[in-house]
Structures are given as structure tokens and as C-alpha cells.
Fold:
Amino acid sequence: MGEKIKVDEHITLERVAPYVWEIPKHGDMLVPGRIFGDREMVDHLIGDVKKGKEWNALEQIVNVACLPGIQVASLAMADVHPGYGFPIGGVGGFDTETGIISVAGVGFDINCGVRTLRTSLREADIEPKKEDLADALFRTVPAGLGSTGDLKLSLKEIDQVLVEGARFSVRRGYGFPEDLQYIEDGGCLEGADPAHVSHKAKERQFQQVGTLGSGNHYCEVQIVDEIYAPEVAEAFGLFLGQVLISIHSGSRALGHQIGTDYLPFLEQSSKKYGIPIRERELVCAPFKSPEGQQYFAAMKAGANCAYANRQALAHLVRVAFKKALGTPERQIETLYEVPHNIAKLERHVVDGVERELIVHRKGATRAFGPGRPELPAAYRAVGQPVLVGGTMGTHSYILCGTSRGLKETFGSALHGAGRSLSRNQAKKQFWGGDVIKELGTRGIIIRAHSKAGVAEEAPGAYKDVLQVVDVMHNAGIVRKVARLRPVICVKG
Structure:
């Protein structure tokens, strides 16, 4: 503790706890920057600065710390890496009276997130028909750039999706009402306003509800191969050898278009309210301003689109399992669903006083500890499930939130391994066909619509997910519950 590293003339890092580093408040910073990581992770972040990369996470953490109304610290989870404006893995809690709302703090794929489904199946039940199951998922779950789903909608129905979220999909026969209690916000953010979403954004979504998309999105069949906290695993309905399915997807083209539309809008707001623009995507508006409320209503509409999308995808997964294995649809239950690109109104204790904050989580997951009333009754005593995706060739993890995390990170945690190589770097270093072949030798079946996409998402393009998870676990922000091994992965 107390170790200090001078990164450059602007940034100094100081270790304040075994897995916590701070950038002390200086210049225009209103709060310190706080990073969860070990020395190796910090050295990687420092390396980006030393190489002269303008796009680096440490500078972005400092920039976020300068935004009006920010509380406690500009936070970076252990999977942090550069993003647009906010770093990915970044968390910022802002006072609703003096603070801001920003596109960069949400991301362009609004409410990108993970749904995990649990089954009563064991690995031995699917092993003889693993290829058939992979084929059924590949045929049934639409994926890839520009993919279209079987839920075709009119413009009026798109507006209903943006207001109702997952409830719309359930109403149309995609899944069951009991799914909703295990989705954050019940699968619907109230106050969404389709009138603040452009016609172009809606047009781009007509045929994309119930589609996985491309990039790092996936549908993965997983096996629970280690349990760390038996009492929490029992509350979550988990057991060794169990078959789970995780779906990682978001608001598709509609969410991206909302972000694109609101960048120039909030740029004008930044100028109107005299908020310095430190990076183009970090434009923002005071949360309580008309402009801030307009973006918030549009963002909630995008979030509801993502909730509807994952609800439809969960239904299609159930259909595929029934086709391949005869598994009844109701035997595949929703364990939980978490967003990790979103801004939400929440109550948190700051300096001993409970206050309402607008919490931005960009590539970070809500991780509420035990007792929070927002949690499903079945999980309230142990804390919220935190779903952390690995890569096609590495484990994923189910964690739970802690009381310490609630105090130190506004109840936030990591969302995945975090990239160590850009997509372009990954395509130069890996060949999709080779990745698929190598994973196949390890018993992992890949079904992909693009080999270039597989190269971009090669396991070697990401940080070590166990190292990232262990940092957050050892820091007490989350608690490890179960480890999941991939056996089938469908990619765009």
C-alpha cells in the first residue's frame, strides 16, 4: 500500500488497498479516479499512455472525474479498457440535481446485457446430441450483421416495444410472465418515450427484435463445473454438471442509432450549459435539463428494446432445445438478466446520507448486495446474481453482489473479461478457421456466421477472465458463486 507510480506529467497512480488504485484529484477533477486491478492490469493501462495512445482508459477515467455532479469517484472495474468517452468498465454516479447524463456513459449498444437460463439437464444429457443442439440453435436463433427475426413489426408495434420492453415479447407469445421477475426492472424501464426516438432508429429495428447480432454477442451453452458458494448457488438454483444457456445481446441497430442521433444534440447542450467537452463522445446535458430528460426518455426506450429482444431470444433458445432434445419449454427457466450499458436512477448512501443518483454503467453490471428491495425475493438474502461472460474458449462466471460493493461502487461490478487487443489487432493475429478448429479439439462447438467475426472475438484477444474476476472477488466487491465451461457457442 502507498506505492506510487508517476505515469506522465498529468497522471499519478497510488495503490490505496491491495486491489485498488487511485488517481488523486487534481486540476479540474471533482473526485479521484479509482481503479480495481492488480499490478499487471495497471501496467497494461500505463503502457497505453507510455505508447502515446490518445485513446487510453486512464485519461478517460480522469475526464469522467471532471464531469459536473459526479460523486465519490470516477470508477473503473477490473475489465476496464478504452471506450468512446467513458472507458468500458467505467461507472459514474451523478447527483440528480447538479449532475449530468451522457451518451458515453451508456454506450451505443444501449442495454447490451446478458440473460442466463437454467435447466434441469446435466452434461451427460446433451453430450450425445451436442452437434444436433448446436445446429438447432444456429438455425433457430438469428445472428450476424443485419440479421432479421421472425417477429415482424409495424411502426405502431415498434413504439409498443419501446414502451413495454420484455412485456411486449411475452404478450406476443415469446416466453412466460414468470420470466419478468428475474429481469432487472422487470424487463421494462418506466418513462420511455418513443416520440424522442427518430424514425430512422425505428426503421432500423422493424425486423431485428429477436436477433443476436454480431461482434461480441453470443448464445452459449455452458456447464456448471465449479461451485464456490454452495448456499448462494442453491438460492440461484445451480448445481454441478448443470446445463445453462447465456445470451449476450442488446438493442441492436435502434440503440446505436439513438446514440448517434443524440451525440450532436448533447454537444449543443454541453455548449449551452457551459460544460467543457474533453472528448467528443463525452458530451452531456444536466440531468434535470429538458435536453437531459429527453435523452433519458430515449435511452429508456432503447433499453426496453433490448429487454424485448433478449426475451424473444430466450424463447427461441427454448424452441431449439425442444427441437433437438425434446426439452419442455417451461423446464428452461430464467435465472437472471442484467444490463451492462445503461444509466439508472438509484438510491445510494453518500457521505452518510441516502441520495438519489443517476448511475452510469458502461460495460459494467449492477451488483446489488443482500437486502436491496429491487432484487427478486428468492435472491434478496444472498445478493444479486452478477453474470460475467468470458470468451468462446474460457470460463464464464456467476457472482453475487456484496454489501461492500454497494458502499464502494454504487453496487457495480465487472461485466466480462475486457479486451486486450482491438478488433483490428485480433484479425491480424488470429484466423477464424483456426480458432474454430482449436476450440473443437477442446470439445467446444462453434457455429458462426462470419469467420472474420470469430477472429475478432478469439480468446487471445481478451484479458484473463479468472484474473479479472479474482480481483473483484478479492477486493470484496463481488463474491464468486459458480464457474461455467462453454460447450456450444453461436456467434454472429
The radius of gyration is 21 Å.
